[in-house]
Amino acid sequence: MRESPSTGTRPVARPAPLRQAVYDALAELIANGTLRPGQHLVESDLAEYLGVSRQPIREALQRLQGDGWVELRPAHGAFVHTPTEEEIVQLLGVRSVLEAYSAHGAAQHAIPADIARLRELQAAGEAALAADDARGLVDANTAFHSYLVHISGNKVLADLISQVERRVRWYFMPTALPRGTDAWAEHASVIAAIADGDAECAQRLMRDHTERTTEFYRQDAVTPAQAPVG
Amino acid sequence: MRESPSTGTRPVARPAPLRQAVYDALAELIANGTLRPGQHLVESDLAEYLGVSRQPIREALQRLQGDGWVELRPAHGAFVHTPTEEEIVQLLGVRSVLEAYSAHGAAQHAIPADIARLRELQAAGEAALAADDARGLVDANTAFHSYLVHISGNKVLADLISQVERRVRWYFMPTALPRGTDAWAEHASVIAAIADGDAECAQRLMRDHTERTTEFYRQDAVTPAQAPVG
DNA sequence: GGCGGGTACATTGCATACAAGGAGCGTTTA
DNA sequence: TAAACGCTCCTTGTATGCAATGTACCCGCC
Predict the structure, then answer these.
(1) Higher pLDDT, A224 or B61
(2) Contact A97 B97 (CB under 8 A)
(3) How many Å apart are CA B55 and CA B32, to the nearest integer?
(4) Which of A172, B34, B109, B210 has its C-alpha lying 20 to 30 A from B17's C-alpha?
């Protein structure tokens, strides 16, 4: 995570692995609601719809299962995962401790350039907030948290957070942003703690931040696709 | 996690999904060192070796990648993952926060029967320790931590911990057990905190416990396959 | 009218076949 | 002799085909 962006050898263009494209397409179809929770995904239908054979479909479905998007019942096929209220709360709880740990590590490893970058992302988030740009706000939020774990340098943590984050983003569709103002103010305080190199403080602030988001969710929104980001 | 053991409908016998058997076989081959880190896994070779076609092999490899056992470089194939010192430390760090959170949840949700079960597992661990039974100790340790997250009732957490735990178990082969005595004493204090319903205390004790294990590892063992469990 | 059985269909699981891409190696030439 | 080119083989990626299994519907029987 600490390496320069050009570390991964990517000469000029990659041959475009088909299963990856299928994965992205299906994940998007699930995230935007085209494929509804509980729906039975028939391999041949998907294959025809996407214009490929069943093989890449199958491989994509396996990965989708691994990431919690679908359930693969043996000999029955794939079903779009139906998130329960309980599961969402659990997911938010796990995200909270992981993000807190991420902030802890970031405070320990951040260099001045990282702080500057965080402030840029913060500014971008506030701009999106001012513009009532829900989509931009979600992106900025993701970028902020993702850069935090990048700073921490913990690849294992980055993997786990990205798994959790993807599912959280699914449940928390980019429609409502009532918590945006508070959330980004809290981001600012986290940045301050990281700039001070105070790992404990950053960790505590981040935990408070994400727990407030969780609490906000538990009180208000009940159904996915209309909850805040944070 | 809280449901009765008979919840999952399992009529009489399951048809044994082949890809699952392949996954287990390959994971075992990697864990016990038959397939060495960095080794190139050729699909057709594995297929012939296991007596199946390439299809189940491919599907198993995808899952193995998702769980961090192999790396799948597009157009190059699968390579057994080579764990770095840095990655192991990161893995232990993540495990620490997840297990602490698990203990926190367990303290909140434990019922008397759970406490009793934990004490049984504790006794089993101490028995294995007394008998210098490394394998039994590893199993008991896994059972202990896995029952904790079961008590917490957090399925998402259980999934993540199991992912991390599998990899930790790979690196920490069941050979040495110098930290066993301290580790199980610390387990006992965690149980006490859970019995008291003191979530904060349980969380803190568990974090201290796993962080001590991490520190123990960083000081002593450097190579996998000869480190303690905890 | 309700229940049981049987058949046909739909879908998954697995195997095989084909095509494309890359790596390694040998040969050839300057 | 060294370097560059080209070729061949190997491996992966994708597609198609076949068999087994589970499901649903329909018909017949009680």
Answers:
(1) B61
(2) yes
(3) 24
(4) B34
pLDDT tens-digit readout, B68-109:
899 999 889 999 998 888 888 899 999 999 999 999 999 999
Select from A80, A111, A130 the last residue of a domain.
A80
Mutate to test the interface with B, among A95, A96, A156 (most CBs of B within 10 A): A156
Nucleotide nearest to B11 (CA to C1'): D22
Mind listing the pLDDT tens digit for each residue in B203-219? 999 999 999 988 888 77
Q: Which nucleotide is nearest to A17 (CA to C1')?
A: D13
Whether residue B117 is found in the same domain as residue B215: yes
Q: Are residues A76 and A103 in the same domain?
A: no
The gap between B15 CA and D21 C1' (Å) is 10
What's the structural domain count of chain B?
Answer: 2
| % of chain A beyond a pLDDT of 90 | 59
Range of the domain at B56: 18-80
How confident is the model over A211-221, as a mean pLDDT?
80
Domain of B35: which CATH number?
Answer: 1.10.10.10
Q: Which two tokens stand for residue B112?
A: 């008397």
- Give me the numbers of helices (H) and strands (E) for chain B, helices first please: 9, 3
Specify the pairing of strand A77-80 against strand A40-41. Answer: antiparallel
Q: With CA atoms as reference, report the closest residue to A70 among A126, A129, A21, A29.
A: A29
**Res. A221 pLDDT band, cuts 50 70 90:** low
Q: How far is the CA of B8 from the C1' of C4 (A)?
A: 28
Give the DSSP letter of residue A36.
Answer: P
CB burial readout A123-159, b (16+ within 10 A) else e: ebbbebbeeeebebbbbbbbbbbbbbbbbbbbbbbbb
Order of strands, sheet of B77-80, starting from the edge strand that comes earlier in the sequence:
B40-41, B77-80, B70-73
B12 located within any domain: no
More confident residue, A129 or A41: A41
Same domain, A140 and A59: no
